[in-house]
Specification:
mainly alpha; two-stranded antiparallel sheet; globular; disordered N terminus; disordered C terminus
Length: about 550
Amino acid sequence: MGSIRSDSARAFHQPLGDAITAISSDNSLRPVPLGPVAWIGFLAMCLGMFMSVLDIQIVASSLPDIQTAFGIPLDLLGWVQTAYLIAEIIAIPLTARLTRLLSLRGLFVVAISGFTLASLGAALSPNFDLLLLFRVIQGFCGGAIIPAVFTAGFALFPPDRRVLPTTIAGIFAMVAPTLGPVVGGYITDTYSWHWMFLINLPPGLLVAVLTGALLRGVRPDWPFLRQLDYAGAALAALFLGSFVLFLKEAPKHHWTGGYISMLAFVCVASGIGAVHRCLTHAEPIVELALFRQRAFAASCLFSFTLGAGLYGSVYLTPVFLGLVRDHTPIEIGLVMIVSGAAQLLAAPVAAVAEKRMNLLLLAGIGYGLFGIGLVANAFETVDTDFAGFFWPQVLRGAGVMLCILPSMTIALEHRLGDDLANASAIFNLMRNLGGTIAIALVDTVLQQRTPIHVAGLIARLQAGDPDAARIVGLPLDRFHNVPLGPIDEATKEQVAPMVQHAALALTINEAWLLLALLFGLTLLALPLLAGRRKPIRR
């Protein structure tokens, strides 16, 4: 009995890596029995990921204050978010090679430390240029954090104990965008914009200390510096950066013009060069050969679709509540928190179901629920508010963990070392790309379809259409399918914003249906998830 107690004590107090991993002959992590310290380290990593995902949402709430503080034009303000997003997407595919170079522990500690220090720099920035520089550093470090956490969930835990950590990681990643408007709205209404960045300091320092002290495992592979494909990394960064910038700017310019053509050329040329390097170099910066595995390629498609649905819905909801319902940031956050609550409540069910149900069936239920939630939002009117958003958010929140767990398991299970890090980086990149592309498409729909609906509603109102009057929110007593005749200027000024709100609501409904269509089409690819995979070896 005494020896059992002493063994348990050693398991609790020994470093995290010693308690959960061993280094095999091929320099990859081998999971071994866990102690409570393992969970402290892993939860610290999840907290770091939560901070990085939350940051992009809460900063959005303070953009008007930042514009006033630095006296910058409105068209430059978006770079506060764009700089972060571009750097984040560039970092994600590079994490596989950075993990080998620095080790999982080294990468995460450097990333969370860099993110925290950059947050301090952003808060203290004396001018807009320095703020953008620190946002780039924040984004790059935040992008490295996300796949590192999901890699840890599979690298540090035995196969029979991975469901709980991956569920927890998924909750942290998915709830953060939902809580962002609440946290951001509260900070905006209560404090100055500087606190959007300063809020990262205490948890960032705590996470850096905990992961640095507890994580152990594979040592850094410094000789790998000589083998890195620097040209491939530069081309991949140029491709992803220009691609994100193209998607952001193209809707504003109606996808035409010299600037957009130049971005498209740079994107295509660098993309071709990056793919060529990845397929021919001995140590490619991104392991594209993984896409030869049918199940992995399908899981990335599902990850892409989930990203489109998540980011698209988190984008459309505040647009509607802010521009149609004229809600404040904190009011928008209180509506959106329903989705986060549903995710938390559904997570235990998803964790149990992942162990007991067929993964394809589970994915089908998850993506089906999320798609139905998108369709349910596609019938909004100018009067839709909390009640109208409640059940669609419940459906999407309940479905999101059922979406991510089976596709992630299929993508990452049984992988070790470089193979695991590469797969995790690509899988997470696809989710972010899905969100980026979805927002660009939604922006295009909003900009191109809203004027069409405005013109249509005006024509129908002038023709005396009672249905159009009902959509706009006008009294029906004057509308009997008889032309109204000339309208005085005072009436036009009164009705114009009502028509604009109604037209925007109709356009947002079309965007919801577009996202739902993507989910429906993706469900057709469900049988592809059943394919077997073989490890990539070089």
